[in-house]
Amino acid sequence: MGLSDKMPENIVSFEDWSKLDLRVGEIVDIEKIEGADKLWKLVVDIGSEKRIVCAGIKEYYSKDELLGKKIVVIVNLAPRKMRGIESQGMVLAAVNGDESFVRLIQPDTLKGTSEKIENGAKVR
Hints:
Helix content is 6%, strand content 34%. It has helices at 14-17, 63-66; strands spanning 22-32, 40-45, 50-55, 70-74, 80-82, 85-87, 90-91, 93-95, 102-104. The radius of gyration is 16 Å and the shape is globular. The two termini are 25 Å apart. The model has no long low-confidence stretch (mean pLDDT 91).
């Protein structure tokens, strides 16, 4: 695959990308949201604080699968009300074309060790 003469229309400058604050977080609590079929209310420990993040991953992950999971969160996204709850970030996930398969983006663990990156570590 080579370089193309035509740049995509939605190109983001490095300066814009560098404004994002991506952090490693750990899901420490999960709650159902009344009337929401797709949303979980997650409490995420990002090292310096705990944040509430609403994530539309209920049909892909159970509470048991999420509790204690290390994830990547955009922490400097403007808060957004979802079903009356202020979501204070966004969980990153990979999604296939028809959105039938979703997997959370997670930092890996070195094979053969129990080493895990600390909560709040910057993602670059």
